[in-house]
Amino acid sequence: MKKINITESDIAAVATRLEQIAPDIPATVTEGPGWSHPPAVKIIDCVLSLSRNYDKFLDPRLKTFMNNHPDTQRVVELANLMDSYPTPHAFVKQELNYNHENRANILRSVVRYVCTIVEGAPIASEEEVLKQWAIQAKPQDYRTPNIKGFALAGFQYLRMLFGAQTTKPDKHIIRFVSDILNRKVSDVKSLYLLEAASKRIGLPIRTADNFIWNRGARGMGAKPVVDIQVKNTAGSEYNSEYSEFWEPIRREGLFQGKPVHAPSFIKTISGIYLVPELRSHQCQIRLSFEGENRSEHRSEIMGFFPESKYKYEYKESPKFASVIFPVLDKGRKDRDDWDEMREKLVSMGTDIYNKINESDT
Questions:
Q1: CB-based contacts of 154: which residues, under 8 Å, 6+ apart?
Q2: Distances (CA, A) of 318 to 64, 140, 196, 263, 315
Q3: pTM
């Protein structure tokens, strides 16, 4: 997998959108029965669900298979059942009512691959072995099985089914991220952006993935969005839901400008991103440093912010070294305190910006 460059402005845009929809997620997203199926059925789920309607196409086939083969629980049991047929195609036609030779061959190859993972494991520990594999595997490992037709999205979904906290960059995920940034985003970039943004706001990535999938595939939890054309720091346009919280902040001072969403008025200085952030019950200023020497750059800058005067904490990610300056333990849901929050966000942001500017680094 080639090196992926994700920018602070893109992460901030996706994180802000997730923060907006987060209050709706607990009421609309639940993990379906597929997550509790036995390993053999999970593999069938993973392969046959690719680019197919889950509810209309896959779900009835899984139910029929489980009714006909209640004792086929383990991966090796599925492998043995498939081998009892003259070809994988014959198995899929008979047992899953699906006349698709290529998909049948993919299923057999994935079954063989998973068999190598659990080979030698005691019966009782098969699911735990698969869970540990799912957690330890990385997205770039999708090439390891070397199965034509089973790429990144399928591999990621397999990891999710066995317990990994990750996302599968299917068409719904790609569309969600692309719509936020108003440009086509690749499957790999969508994956890394959603992971980074979910981590930033403390939202479990599987929860975000399930919500986006349910909304895209089933129309669940969707709400109308008011679209306004805005520009991010890179100059490209994207659609964003305008929040009234930010309007007064745009009228004057450090963040003065057109009434756009928060990620669009990231300030940059000396190669540093300064980002005002609003959470459900917290507001803060984030400084993000990128590049090979980001940690050294951060240490140099933070020398101008003595701990006796400033409270802050370091955050790390594969692409950025960040610093969080807490402003207030009040946020988007504390509407009665918005005026105070705006004032302190601008005051803190301006102070930090001026300190960096005066450092001449």
A1: 46, 47, 50, 110, 142, 168
A2: 44, 14, 9, 20, 11
A3: 0.69
